[in-house]
Structure formats: structure tokens, C-alpha cells
Fold:
Amino acid sequence: MGGASVDAGIATVRQPAQPRVTAPTLGGEAHLDGARLALRASAGATLAAADRWTAQGELAGSWIAASRGRASWELGLGGSALRYNGAPAASTGSILARQHVDLGAGGLWLGAGGGVLARQGDAAPIGALEVGSWLRASRLRASLTVSLQHARLDTIALTRNEFGVLVRRRFDARLTALDATALATWHSTRLDLTGTAALRRAPRQHDGVLGSALATGAWWLVPQAAVMATGGALAADPLRGLPARHVLMAGLRLRPGGGSAAPRRTAAPLATPAADVAVRSGQRVLRVRAPGATSVDVRGDCTKWQPTPLVRAGDWWELAMPFDPGTQHLVLRIDGGAWRPPANVPSIEDEFGERVGLLVVP
Structure:
């Protein structure tokens, strides 16, 4: 499943030792999500004057291997490019491997990787380590990540030699950044909220601890359009040469094709079966009625969004798991076909653009 959105509005940017700037801004994001493969692309630009403009873009993809018990592996690739106030562009390319461990409604991961940072005409290797945790509830998604990044860059400076003459000399600069980042998203019928808070420790480039906080809200007037606002303070990025700044932006968010997040009952194809949860000897069992099917798989909150096969029991297919009481998000796949919500329950479009069913577990 995929989706896209475009943000357009007016942004006010303030940074130390610089006058405040108010300028038009334009950004966009597109995503494609499968059972194991996910792709993301985003870009944005703010234009204040010929010498005061910013443009950046990011591309990321990840592949998750088949899980074994509670553990699964993820391989990720990413790239970014940034140009700030007309200065030479800074770009990165990286690869990261993560080991995930599922723990009920949440989980942990540990990752390591590396890449290349290109800045001011020089290229330097980057190393990265990270550890994180995540939580997924009915409407809430949250994560906490601690990452360490290190790069070696050659920098050029003008210095005087022993004869008092200015000469260009190349110095070896080591840039290290330790970040702790918390991210939370919450979605209701018409309101989307996203909040990010971060602490950065970069003792070789800055004194003390730098903090960031950014919040975004979007109120959907119709399925295709929302009014939105973003505001907060962002810490300096020593690796890419981006200074600290305060940002306030207001505008419109457009979503081609619509897709409201409001729950509604949909008419599913006849090939999509019905599902329910029965309680047997104190254990909850997911049951799917699919006469004639040769295979039935489920993916959702109950499987940590990993495809999981059900076992045939006559015309029924079953899966016994420690389901949490309440509303479960899930989709079904029959005979290796498309993922669809069960036909007998309401469905919504989640934050990833996928239509999922809402199954009430007693």
C-alpha cells in the first residue's frame, strides 16, 4: 500500500545572529509499504532570498527478514541531500542493520551501520550505533532512539606560516554526535498529531547539551485536505553543518486520492472472509471462515505486523495467541492474494495508507 501528501504554507525561521525570515515553503512525502518492504521519500524547500534558502531531500528503504519467534532482522538503506543558504551541498548515504525483539505491544532494537558524508567537496566515512524501543497502541505510535554518529572530515583553514604569510592548510576534524530522540504520533477521526523531542551531545563542536522539540498537527477538513501547523526549536546538526533554528509554519496539507482516517464500514469483496475471536479454556483464538481456501495469513497488532499463517480447522482457519482485550488492527490474505480487512468488521485507513480492519477482542 502507498500514499503521498504535499504541504504548502508560510514559514518563519529564526537563528542566532541572523534576522528573522518569513518565506513560502513547500514539502512533500511519499511512501510504499508491503509485508516486508517499505520505501519512503521526502523533500522540502524554503525560499526567503537569493542568498537565504534551504532545500533538502531524503530517501529511505528497509527490508525485514522473516521473524523467528520474537526476533527479526531489518536491513535499511538511506540517502539525503541538504543545501543551506546557498552553501555547498552536504549529502549522506548509509546502510544500517537492526535486530528487533518483540515484547507484547512494544519491542526493542539494536542497530549498527555506516556510510559516507560528502561536505564542502570532501567525502568522509560515517559510523553509527543505535539502540531503541517502540510502542504501538490503538491510536498511538511511539519510539525512543539513542544513536551515536562519528565522522572524519578534512577541513581547510587560512593560517599564517613562520613568515607571516596566509596559507591554506588542511586539518583533520573528527565530528561526534550522541542523540536521544523520542517520537510519538496520534491519530483520531480527523486529527493527526506528531511530536518529536531530542537531546544532542556533541562536545567537540558545542558546549553542553543541545535540545530540540517539534510538534505538528493536521486537522482534516475533507479527506483530501487539512489545515496544518508546525512549530518548535531544532538543534544544530554538526555533521551536515546545519545551524540551530526556531521554526513556525502554517499552511495546507493535501493528500491526493483522499483516504480519511475516520472509521467506516466498507463493502468488501465476497472473497474476503469474516473473522472473530473466540475464548476457549481461557485462551483467545482468532477464527477466520474461508471455505475452499488453501492458505490464510494474518498481519496486525496481534502479530506485531509480521505475516503469520493460520491453521485449517474444516472450513475455518484458526490461530491461538495471547490477544490483548480491546480493538485490534489487522488484515487477512487468502491464498497469497492481496491484504484486506475482514468483511464483517469496520475498517480504517491507518497512518501508512493501508486499510485495516477493527476487530473487537473480548
User: Anything to note?
Assistant: The two ends are 29 Å apart (CA to CA). The chain has two domains: 2-254, 274-361. The mean pLDDT is 80.
